[in-house]
Design a protein that fits this description.
With about 150 residues, the protein is α+β, with helices and mostly antiparallel strands. It is built from 4 helices and 7 strands, in the order αβββββββααα. Strand 2 and strand 3 form a beta hairpin. The mean pLDDT is about 90.
Length: about 150
Amino acid sequence: MPIRPENRWLYPIDWRQLSDVIRFDRAGARCEHCSRPHMRRVAHLGDGRWWDAEAACWRSAGGKRITLKGDFILKSVRTTYVVLACAHLDHDPGNSMPGNLAALCQRCHMIHDAAEHRWQRWWNVFRLRAIRDLYEDPRVTRERGAR
């Protein structure tokens, strides 16, 4: 995932090299949670199950081999292009120890960061309301609401 400009100073100066080591040397260009391959288009069912073309088998959301027993319709198979990102497991970009980093595909990264994203949405709404309360004239707000 791209680094926001306001957070750039939190990352080490050699972040690109560190990210490459984690994604390609340690993880072997595969997601460390589900094993999806980097820079490949994979077929998936939308619930985490995906087709591993190299091993010619279906895999679960955790990367384990599974067999499908006709519980899916061929129309439900979709494809996605997988790109690995280096994720901070504790959500602290200042903690770039190798044990705190993981190579994750988009799906696993979004699942891992879901709680953080919910909190960020709440914080943005709270911040905007607080700014509005500071700078808006309550008399104007009441007049608009009365119309």
